[in-house]
């Protein structure tokens, strides 16, 4: 799987990553590594820089300094759409879906074909596209709502739809920003089930506050505080770290 | 539902109705003078059509469409002017063989950028390419840097202002405030008599339908859906692997080229071109045609253009004082009460009743849903 | 183009043209201040801003006529009263417009643009119906007409200095209101989060209305200053609206300092170029430069990098 001249066994290496907004360092000299097929959860208090880290990886925010290497490519030098093409998918905190389109069309747009202007003009909705959309719609519990305008979905369903849009994209690294925030208990359980199914064959980077949920899915946890890593390791290890208890878990 | 690349059944009916109106009813009912007026209105319909794609679907409001209308128009007018300025026609000038306004401005030789416009092929290419490339440059400069929305609108407006001042100021090269007048023949064929006006009208209607079909194709392609998606959630589209800027540039260029075709037809049909169709005021008026017709409706743009212009002609003929009040009020009413314009009114109020009357089982759907998000999966 | 002038000549030309540009600068600053409040703070594109300015100009003209006919002895001071009246008239009209039109459109910025354009057409026609299509000129009191003799080559028009001083005062006032007063904080709170501001007890509707009225009122004062450099007609305002928007955008929409700096550079460039070429080419070059710079630096001259 790895590109030849890059000996590192990691899918994603973040080294010395720093970004400052008018002198305020939201992320400060951050380094961490994600392996193939690993599920990594980032936790930390509000303002710790969690979302900013995802923004930096997917190219939404440009790093002030540091390196983000993904499969041997330096992501800090790529444009957003090139990063997606390299295999990074990103779900936003608030559901970002297209209200004016149907559920089917929402999913179809993420289908990884015809992404250039000309490609989009000549794109045809063939059997492969339809089958894939149906397959994903079934996974995200929206099979019966394909023709519905996405604006009419509930909040939880919108979250699922966006996850579905990422699934169709089939990224190697999937980044999810608070995927269960604002969901009901039953929706939360369904989402955990959904996530557990989709994390096969890919690495996942999740930001989440719900500790129960984190414990269920995480292989490894990174705790961020003021833009820096406070602690890293298994959930057990992190939970017993006194520093973490003090700034985050303690209350 | 069907999966057509061009139009749904109801849209095809709409296009057919418009075709019957423009090809049969209007030519039969109107005298040549009035028909030529319609031809003039329809030149703006090209602009409105482009704005539907660019503004309605893409959410990019350009207040400088007059620039592209003007560039297309001036390219065509330059060719016609050169043909009208043959040595024989201009032998009373101090320098025969150049356009009259150059002679009046003490210019003694044809400027270099005028020379290629002796060729009709070059002219036709220029009508498309000059505005297209200009839009490409502006679009690339703006959209690659994520300038959009209100900023883009203001900058396009500034471009319209600049071009107008330039055309007016450089009268030796452009004809100045009067523009290029006294256009006579196209490859020796006189464009001024009545029968020529009728031929040109039908030619223009043909072009208009070609553009309508292109617009329909764009709208029903995935690109059309991406434009709508971008309008809602630009970041989501970007992080689904699309270069948002390129799609915006495409929409802007299409709109520019449509406008330019309209401008070229204006020069042919009306027989002159002047800076009064380039600047800020005409550019905004063109936006209002689209808004009145319905910014999301391709056919609405055509009807909106014809109706507003018809109202303008009749009102400003009989009550010149009222016209500006009327136009201003129309802007405000459309924006406040009918943001989807005539097409919205049609979809919300008229169509459901017709459906009820003739008993079709087609359920009344939300208009935007019906029109923008049309394209449910084929099953 | 500089070839025919000596260095000393050039220096004088720049200074003279610089002072000649002062009134233009003042009009730009005052227009742009109003717009910067309305566009930069409220996010509303007011295409009728030029018509609010012209209302101020007409009020000034009417005041001057009134004083000439009825109070000739006080004519030398009419301008001060005219400015206050211009502010009040444009502000009141602004309040009315906000109530009838703008408040329905806060979520649709591009639509405010269309609606206010419609408004501007109606206002132009109203001016034409009321004041006539002919442009009117305002007579200045004697003391404002002369010029200060600085050196042999340099003369400074008094009305320019006067308007300039006034502009500085108004700018300081606006800066105080927007950045130091409690009310300014409320305005910014409403701009940043309308729902939240409402929830913490700010009367957002009232804040909106007065902010809009303030912006329009300042445009009215700009109209008073405008009467010194041009004659007033129904469509005079339209000529300034694009320039003013460029001033605001060029300066970085939310920055008052940027607005002033950009008004200064744009008006001075234009005024200096006018000496060397025709007015229209000076304008074209100035606008081209602004648009070109904006394409390279779309956030304007002064803008912060913010965490989104």
Give the class of chain A from helix and strand content and strand pairing. alpha/beta
SS element count, helices of chain A: 10
Radius of gyration of chain A: 18 Å
- The whole-angstrom Rg of chain C is 20 Å
Query: How do the strands of the widest beta sheet of chain C line up side by side?
Result: 1-2
Give a written overview of the molecule:
The complex is a heterotrimer of chains A (251), B (379) and C (308). Chain A is 37% helix and 25% strand. Chain A contains 10 helices and 10 strands. In chain A, the strands form 2 sheets. In chain A, strands 6-7-8-3-9-10 form a 6-stranded mixed sheet, with helices on both faces. A 4-stranded antiparallel sheet of chain A has the order 2-1-4-5, with helices on one face. The longest helix of chain A is centred in the middle third of the chain and has 15 residues, at 155-169. The model of chain A has no long low-confidence stretch (mean pLDDT 86). Chain B has helices at 9-29, 32-57, 65-84, 100-104, 120-143, 149-169, 171-174, 194-220, 222-232, 234-238, 244-270, 280-293, 298-318, 320-337, 341-358, 367-371, and strands at 185-186, 189-190. The model of chain B is unreliable at 362-379 (pLDDT under 50). By secondary structure, chain C is an all-alpha fold. Chain C has a two-stranded antiparallel sheet with strand order 1-2. Classes of the chains: A alpha/beta (251), B mainly alpha (379), C mainly alpha (308). Chain B binds chain C through residues 61, 63, 141-142, 145-147, 149-151, 153-155, 157-159, 161-162, 165-166, 168-169, 280-281, 284, 287-288, 291, 321, 324-325, 327-332, 334-336, 339, and chain C through 39, 43, 45, 101, 104-105, 108-111, 113-115, 117-125, 128-129, 238, 242, 245-246, 249, 278, 280-281, 283-284, 287-288, 290-291, 294-295, 298.
What are the salient characteristics of this protein?
heterotrimer; A: 251 residues; alpha/beta; four-stranded antiparallel beta sheet; 10 strands; 37% helix; globular; B: 379 residues; two-stranded antiparallel sheet; 16 helices; 2 strands; 1% strand
Ordered list of secondary-structure elements with their pairings:
The complex is a heterotrimer of chains A (about 250), B (about 375) and C (about 300).
Chain A (H helix, E strand, L loop, with lengths): L9 E12 L2 E12 L3 E5 L6 H9 L6 E6 L2 E2 L5 H7 L1 E4 L11 H7 L7 H6 L4 H13 L15 H15 L3 E5 L7 H14 L4 E5 L3 H7 L2 E6 L2 E6 L1 H6 L1 H8 L2
Parallel strand pairs in A: 3-8, 3-9, 6-7, 7-8
Antiparallel strand pairs in A: 1-2, 1-4, 4-5, 9-10
Chain B lengths: L8 H21 L2 H26 L7 H20 L15 H5 L15 H24 L5 H21 L1 H4 L10 E2 L2 E2 L3 H27 L1 H11 L1 H5 L5 H27 L9 H14 L4 H21 L1 H18 L3 H18 L8 H5 L8
Antiparallel strand pairs in B: 1-2
Helix pairs in contact in B: 1-8, 2-8, 2-11, 2-12, 2-13, 3-5, 3-11, 5-11, 8-9, 8-11, 9-11, 12-13, 12-15, 13-14
Chain C lengths: L6 H35 L7 H22 L7 H23 L8 H23 L15 E3 L5 E3 H22 L2 H11 L1 H6 L4 H23 L11 H14 L4 H21 L2 H18 L12
Helix pairs in contact in C: 1-5, 1-8, 1-9, 1-10, 2-3, 2-4, 2-8, 3-8, 5-6, 6-8, 9-10, 9-11, 10-11
């Amino acid at each position: 799987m790895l590109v030849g001249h890059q000996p590192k066994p990691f899918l994603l290496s973040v080294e010395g990553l720093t970004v400052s907004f008018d002198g305020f360092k939201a992320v400060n000299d951050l380094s961490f590594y994600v392996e193939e097929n690993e599920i990594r959860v980032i936790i930390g208090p509000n303002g710790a820089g969690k979302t900013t880290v995802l923004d930096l990886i997917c190219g939404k925010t440009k790093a002030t300094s540091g390196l983000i290497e993904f499969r041997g490519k330096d992501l800090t030098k790529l444009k957003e759409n090139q990063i997606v093409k390299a295999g990074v998918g990103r779900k936003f905190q608030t559901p970002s879906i297209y209200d004016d389109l149907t559920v089917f069309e929402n999913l179809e747009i993420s289908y990884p074909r015809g992404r250039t202007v000309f490609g989009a003009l000549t794109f045809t909705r063939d059997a492969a596209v339809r089958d894939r959309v149906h397959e994903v719609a079934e996974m995200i519990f929206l099979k019966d709502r394909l023709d519905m305008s996405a604006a009419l979905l509930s909040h939880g369903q919108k979250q699922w739809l966006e996850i579905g849009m990422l699934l169709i994209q089939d990224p190697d690294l999937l980044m999810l920003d608070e995927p269960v925030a604002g969901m009901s208990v039953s929706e939360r359980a369904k989402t955990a089930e959904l996530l557990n199914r989709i994390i096969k064959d890919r690495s996942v980077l999740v930001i989440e506050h719900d500790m129960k949920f984190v414990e269920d899915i995480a292989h490894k946890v990174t705790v961020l505080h003021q833009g820096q890593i406070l602690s890293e390791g298994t959930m057990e290890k992190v939970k017993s770290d006194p520093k973490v208890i003090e700034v985050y878990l303690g209350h | 539902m069907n999966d057509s690349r061009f139009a749904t059944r109801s849209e095809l009916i709409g296009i057919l109705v418009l075709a019957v109106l423009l090809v049969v009813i209007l030519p039969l009912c109107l005298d040549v003078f009035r028909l030529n007026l319609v031809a003039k209105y329809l030149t703006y319909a090209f602009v409105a059509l482009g704005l539907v794609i660019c503004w309605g679907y893409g959410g990019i409001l350009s207040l400088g469409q007059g620039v592209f209308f003007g560039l297309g128009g001036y390219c065509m007018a330059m060719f016609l002017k050169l043909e009208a300025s043959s040595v024989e026609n201009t032998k009373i000038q101090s320098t025969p063989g150049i356009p009259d306004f150059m002679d009046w401005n003490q210019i003694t030789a044809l400027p270099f950028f005028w020379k290629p416009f002796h060729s009709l092929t070059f002219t036709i290419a220029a009508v498309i390419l000059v505005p297209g490339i200009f839009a490409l440059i502006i679009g690339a400069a703006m959209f690659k840097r994520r300038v959009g929305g209100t900023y883009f609108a203001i900058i396009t407006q500034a471009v319209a202002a600049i071009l107008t001042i330039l055309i007016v100021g450089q009268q030796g090269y452009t004809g100045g405030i009067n523009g290029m007048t006294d256009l006579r023949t196209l490859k020796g064929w006189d464009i001024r008599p009545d029968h020529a006006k009728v031929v040109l009208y039908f030619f223009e209607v043909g072009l208009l339908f070609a553009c309508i079909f292109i617009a329909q194709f764009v709208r029903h392609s995935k690109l059309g859906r991406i434009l709508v998606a971008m309008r809602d959630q630009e970041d989501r589209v970007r992080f689904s692997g699309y270069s948002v800027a390129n799609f915006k540039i495409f929409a802007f260029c299409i709109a520019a080229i449509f406008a330019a075709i309209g401008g070229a037809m204006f020069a042919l049909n009306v027989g002159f071109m002047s800076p009064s169709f380039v600047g800020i005021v005409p550019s905004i008026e063109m936006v209002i045609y689209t808004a009145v017709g319905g910014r999301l409706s391709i056919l609405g743009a055509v009807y909106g253009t014809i109706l507003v212009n018809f109202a303008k002609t009749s009102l400003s003929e009989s009550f010149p004082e009222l016209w500006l009040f009327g136009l201003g009020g129309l802007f405000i009413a459309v924006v406040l009460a009918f943001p989807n314009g005539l097409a919205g009114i049609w979809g919300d109020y008229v169509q459901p009743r017709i459906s009820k009357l003739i008993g079709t089982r087609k359920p009344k759907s939300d208009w935007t849903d019906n029109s923008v998000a049309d394209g449910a999966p084929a099953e | 183009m500089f070839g025919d002038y000596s260095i000393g000549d050039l220096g004088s030309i720049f200074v003279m043209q610089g002072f000649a540009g002062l009134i233009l600068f003042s009009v730009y600053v005052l227009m742009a201040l109003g717009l910067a409040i309305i566009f930069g703070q409220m996010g509303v594109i007011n295409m009728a801003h030029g018509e609010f300015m012209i209302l101020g100009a007409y009020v000034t003209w009417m005041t001057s006529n009134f004083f000439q006919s009825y109070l000739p002895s006080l004519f030398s001071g009419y301008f001060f009263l005219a400015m206050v009246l211009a502010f009040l008239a444009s502000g009141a009209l602004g309040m009315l417009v906000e109530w009838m039109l703008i408040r329905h459109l806060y979520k649709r910025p591009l639509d405010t643009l269309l609606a206010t354009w419609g408004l501007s057409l109606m206002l132009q026609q109203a001016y034409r119906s009321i004041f006539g299509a002919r442009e009117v000129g305002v007579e200045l009191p004697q003391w404002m007409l002369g010029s200060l003799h600085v050196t042999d080559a340099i003369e400074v028009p008094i009305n320019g200095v006067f308007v300039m001083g006034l502009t500085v005062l108004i700018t300081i006032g606006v800066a105080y209101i927007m950045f130091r007063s409690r009310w300014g904080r409320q305005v910014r709170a409403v701009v940043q989060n309308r729902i939240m501001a409402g929830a913490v007890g700010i009367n957002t509707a009232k804040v909106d209305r007065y902010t809009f009225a303030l912006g329009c009122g300042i445009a009215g004062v700009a109209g008073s200053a405008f009467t010194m450099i041009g004659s007033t007609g129904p469509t005079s305002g339209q000529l300034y609206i694009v320039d003013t928007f460029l001033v605001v955008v060029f300066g970085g929409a939310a920055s008052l300092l940027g607005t002033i700096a950009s008004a200064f550079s744009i008006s001075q460039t234009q005024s200096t170029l006018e000496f060397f070429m025709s007015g229209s080419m000076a304008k074209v070059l100035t606008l081209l430069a602004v648009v070109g710079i904006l394409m390279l630096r779309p956030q304007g001259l002064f803008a912060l990098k913010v965490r989104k």
